[in-house]
Amino acid sequence: MVLRNVILNNVRRKHTWIKPEGYDTGISVYNCIVKEKVPLIVKNKEFTSWYTCGPTVYDSAHIGHASCYVKLDIIQRILRNHFKINLITVMNITDVDDKIIKKSLQSEKTPTEIVQHYEKEFWDDMECLNVVKPNLILRVTENMHIIKDFIKRLVHSKHAYKDEGGSVVFNVKTVNDYGKLQNIVQRDSSNLEENLQTPNTDFAVWKAVKENEPYWDAVFGAGRPGWHTECSALASAVYGDNIDIHAGGIDLRFPHHENEEAQCCAYFSKSQWVNYWLHTGHLMQNSIKMSKSLNNTLTIQNMLKICDAETFRMMCLMSHYRHNMEFSEEYVKTAQTLLKSYKNFVVDCKAFISGKLHSAINREILNSNLTENINKLHMALNNDFDTAACIKIINSVVASTNKMLHTPVESANNNLTDVASVISILNFVVNTFQLFGMDLNKTVAVNQIESSDLTELLEILNKFRQNVRILGLANKDKSLLQLCDGVRDDLKKCGIIIKDHGKLSSWSK
Questions:
Q1: What InterPro entries does the annotation carry (predicted)?
Q2: To the nearest whole number, what is the mean pLDDT of the chain?
């Protein structure tokens, strides 16, 4: 036991990250290998390579997927539109997999029918969430020749071997620094107690053919690719021996991303394939991770019945992309309230600008706040895309400006210099959310208003009309009564019937 402990203490290796050479973007990002923030340096100033692990299309996407892809979409928008980086994005579609085959057998549909249905549904969901499509989408079954060539080279270089069942397996002991993304303890195979009962981490790069399963012929035997190898082969086919950014959910860091890195380092005989790994946090419910295995997921379409896409994006903005995000009724309401306050702010600014609202504006304070908070926002985005900090900055700007807008003054006209200052604040707020993929100028159509909200709105309108009518009757003011009749007639055109019962009024649809 003493010998074993000595060996264990002496064989730990410090995982290394190689700082790339190239264009320093000025951004710092969290690095899971060194466990700290590092400068984001891309190979070429002209373009930056980005690869995202796509879905396995065997079932409906759930809100855990939504949070991952929305958060990554926000980061991509920031890189493209704030930092003016020419981002080239690639995503794979896993359309052959154990889960797809199992679903096919259960549903008595062909694998092709399964993947076509769920891939279309996935892209429809992404469109609903306002997630920008990747520049290049690569389906596994359409690029099998690339994957087979990739595996052939791994076998030839002795990094992969054929097991007893006929599958081709990657030997992780043939690469240095395996486990660096997850910071797994490595053990030197030259030690006396080789492996010391370390679990076998070798993984299949090509699964041998089985009865009633789709397969492809290859020089190393008929079968189909392993999941990890699909991404490795397709991403490297586009970007070669080095990628700037590789992204996905935190649950993919090990073993999926670890195995991708290991294969490509072996394939290209390099120590580092991906320079920066970006991982989004889990989506939680009652502090429990949402996953299909736990049967606690909610499909994206069902989620959109609870909160709209803009509210969900606001929830993602309020939480740092690396942190877990709790999906709860309270958090949804908080995001809805915040979004509503921003849209009300836009309405108030426009009312002041158009002269409908007369307010006590201190343009010196507004201009000073603008300069200060533009810098703060830039620093927050530089700091590992900290959108949560950005929301706090916007809240501060809105609160200070609202205080002025809601301080009335008796004036026939607003000072044009004050108007210009309010316009500059409005542009800052609206443009920031446009950067994040949201339009604060967009108004909600009546048919999109929740039924409960519409009922409450009509109750308020009816009560107001009723009080005006009572006042008109009491004062025998025909002009007020005519206004009430006009409201009644206009609502009738919209399908809302107002009936007067003495001094009381009611409405119906």
A1: Cys-tRNA-ligase, Cys-tRNA/MSH_ligase, Rossmann-like_a/b/a_fold, tRNA-synt_1_cat_dom, tRNAsynth_Ia_anticodon-bd
A2: 90
